[in-house]
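User: Predict structure, ligand cobalt (II) ion.
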Amino acid sequence: MIVKRRSELEVMAEAAVINREALEVVERAVTPGVTTRELNALAEDAILSRGGKPAFKGYNGFPATICASPNEVVVHGFPDDRPLAEGDIISIDIGTFYRGYAADMARTYPVGNVSVDAERLLDVTQRSLTAGIERAQAGGRLGDVSAAIQDVVEAAGYWVVREFVGHGIGRDFHEGPEVPNFGRAGTGPVLRPGLVLAIEPMVAQRRARVVIADDGWTASTENGCLAAHFEHTVAITEDGPWVLTASGSGTNVMPTARGGVHGA
Ligand code: MF3
Ligand code: CO
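Assistant: Predicted complex:
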């Protein structure tokens, strides 16, 4: 695992701001009738106009700037021409390179009014990410993060997707260590200041295997249940987790006092 200097974290924070702003552009356009291809174009324009480079496009042959994963699609969906419909949920995952460093972020949005069950899935998945981030403390263990996520998900009666995990991030989009969304507190590598993690719980409504479509990417629950995905890029610091992709996380802002979570 690669530990970054403060100056590198500051560049990563700039990459993260571009990435978050691009996702916010997409978010404002999520509405019944819009296509994910249109959302992809908005995201690409937003990244490029801010001086960034889409990180996903061309990565292992991925064809687009965003992953757009509706309903039972867990991750890595391709943007396409099917309009979003009222009641859908849509996971948008986005990555940006800026001055040689990457940022990675995802959120699942409701399209118009959605079922109470869908709302709850989004809420629980987001809360599991926050719980994981709170455990991303220097001197702690990676398993603390994983276990905190799993606890929130399973306490709500949902299923942690096992087939995909979070990751270290920096000059490479995927660096070590892997960050599973399940595990045991007090186990795994020690979290050192300067380590940057993409923490990204993927949660299904019930126990489900994940199957990959013929396109080699689109990953869906085999039983068709809904899945959600929330992700932040988080730096471990002496002063607590620095959520680079959160709003208000600008480079001029210092992390909060030890143990706090800045910008979650
Ligand atoms: N956040 C996802 C990941 O870390 C998105 C990757 S999309 C890809 O795996 F195209 F870049 F693979
Ligand atoms: Co990621």
